[in-house]
Write a structure and sequence with these properties.
The complex is a heterodimer of chains A (289) and B (199).
Chain A: H1 2-17, H2 22-27, H3 33-52, H4 57-76, H5 92-107, H6 111-116, H7 126-139, H8 143-166, H9 170-191, H10 212-236, H11 242-272
Helix pairs in contact in A: 1-3, 8-9, 8-10, 9-11, 10-11
Chain B: H1 5-19, H2 23-45, H3 48-65, H4 76-95, H5 103-107, E1 109-111, E2 124-126, H6 127-135, H7 139-150, H8 155-162, H9 166-187
Antiparallel strand pairs in B: 1-2
Helix pairs in contact in B: 1-2, 2-3, 2-4, 2-7, 3-4, 4-8, 6-9, 7-8, 7-9, 8-9
Classes of the chains: A mainly alpha (289), B mainly alpha (199).
Chain lengths: 289, 199
């Protein structure tokens, strides 16, 4: 019965979704009518429900602009197949990855990693930099060191944004800005704070054992990083065209908002002490700037 | 929910041109699939804001890796939904899985026009009801229901996207709908009457 019933159900679903009468379809399966009807009904209501889920035109346009910009960037910077892709020998890839990991670990803070510290996305040594960061994150054990490392990495992303903007690579800078935000959010999670723009949600993890003194240190370093980033980006404003200036100011507003949300949440946490998480709800529209 | 052969031809052309770096082709793919992907992502993550961000990322990923796409009998949508699925998983991994249902949406009522259901019992439920019912499905059932009824994919396309056979998708569809109905009956008693006498 099962496969036959599954086929009957699927047949009815296809026909009803194309506008056919449900009863007509059910009449062709009298033996399953009782069970088929309610299931098709649930499927139809789920489809109706899905139809109400439409993106706002504003966000769709915004994403479209970013997408087009990325398409244009991709066209101006033709993709080169890196020699380490090893597409000619599939088995070589996992071996190469392992070897590279060993080499990176062995070299530690050696010449390559030192040279890569100035790399930005799209440059040949950038993968060394990100690998080193991933290793660094994995080596951290305590919440405090993880939170601090993520905050430091957010600062590194800020520096990359500055370099990318100076090179006119706004799409790449936009991507790095998202990563900066992710680092800050991860930092918040390790402090035991759940920073969100959603109005209703559940705490994700138990309270961190992060101590007050560490929170103060982290907050101070975040405030300083935010301040330095603002000053550094501000210095560049005078050299840009009005359009570039607008984009740069958007970056400044976003980075300030991301840092501010976390710093405010940490201030709040310091006051309450016992709360497992805090929701920060910025004014309506604040995230759409 | 079935793919038109003409559609496949159009999509094939768009993908081919996009792989050659043709900008209007990218715009065409975006316009064609944005809403579908958004609905799928919304179904999976529940938060419109998050869904908008993730959908944007899906298309950037598509741009990055469209040169790797090869026609091997699989529809383009399956490949695109795989990207969307991976982006959602990455997002959950980064933030942890949690329920994020903004109140505005939770308050939105979903009414189903009785005439559409051949005067079947009126179903009146909220997004919160649907999302909580969806949350109780297994991962695969939720995937199949999201793809089939959220995005309107055919059984074949869904099968490609989830890496299962058509019959397995039909079985998952059946099990998922059955569970959804049982939960919705608890949440909204109006759904409980059977449909006899509706003709």
């Amino acid at each position: 019965m099962s496969q036959e019933f599954n086929n009957a159900l699927n047949d009815c679903l296809e026909r009803v979704s194309q506008g056919e009468n449900l009863q007509k379809c059910l009449s062709e399966y009298p033996q399953y009518r009782e069970e088929l009807g309610p299931l098709v009904q649930v499927a139809v209501s789920t489809m109706k429900f899905a139809e109400t889920m439409t993106p706002s035109q504003q966000s769709k346009n915004r994403n479209f602009q970013s997408f087009l910009q990325a398409v244009q960037t991709a066209q101006t910077e033709p993709r080169k197949k890196p020699w380490y892709s090893f597409s000619w020998l599939p088995l070589a890839k996992p071996i190469a990855i392992s070897l590279v990991a060993v080499v990176v670990l062995a070299m530690g803070a050696g010449v390559t990693t030192a040279a890569s510290s100035d790399a930005v996305p799209g440059e040949s040594l950038y993968w060394v930099k990100t690998t080193r960061e991933n290793v660094q994150l994995r080596l951290n054990r305590s919440d405090a060191s993880k939170a601090q490392t993520h905050a430091d990495l957010a600062n590194v992303r800020g520096e990359e944004i500055r370099k990318l903007v100076s090179k006119g690579r706004y799409t790449a800078a936009n991507e790095v800005m998202k990563r900066l935000n992710r680092h800050l959010q991860s930092s918040a999670v390790h402090v035991g704070i759940d920073v969100t723009v959603n109005r209703q949600e559940m705490p994700q993890r138990p309270p961190s054992r992060f101590r007050g003194r560490n929170v103060d240190q982290l907050r101070a370093s975040l405030e300083q990083n935010s301040h330095v980033m603002r000053i550094e980006l501000n210095k560049m404003v005078s050299e840009l065209t009005p359009e570039q200036k607008q984009q740069l100011q958007q970056f400044m507003r976003r980075s300030e908002l991301y840092y501010r949300m976390l710093v405010d949440a940490m201030t709040e946490r310091g006051n309450t002490g016992q709360l497992p998480f805090i929701r920060i709800v910025p004014p309506q529209g604040a995230m759409q700037r | 929910m079935q793919t038109n052969p003409d559609d496949r031809k159009v999509v094939g052309e768009l993908v081919k041109k996009a792989q050659q770096g043709h900008q209007p082709a990218f715009a065409g793919l975006y316009e064609r699939y944005y809403d579908q992907i958004y609905r799928y992502v919304s179904f999976k993550c529940g938060s419109p804001t998050e869904a908008e961000d993730i959908t944007g990322e899906v298309f950037l990923k598509m741009l990055e890796s469209i040169h790797t796409f090869k026609w091997q009998g699989h529809p383009f949508t399956s490949w695109l939904y795989r990207i969307a699925h991976n982006q959602i998983v990455d997002n959950f991994r980064r933030k942890g899985r949690r329920q994020t249902v903004p109140l505005d949406d939770a308050e939105r009522r979903i009414g189903v026009d009785a005439s559409d259901l051949e005067r079947a019992a009126e179903i009146n439920m909220t997004i919160t009801d649907v999302m909580s019912a969806m949350d109780s499905l297994t991962d695969l059932q939720r995937e199949v229901i999201s793809l089939r009824f959220g995005s309107g994919l055919s059984v074949a396309e869904t099968a490609q996207a989830v890496g299962r056979k058509d019959n397995a998708v039909k079985a998952l569809q059946h099990a998922g709908l059955k569970k959804l109905r049982a939960l919705m009956v608890q949440l909204t008693p109006a759904i409980s009457p059977a449909i006899e006498g509706d003709a």
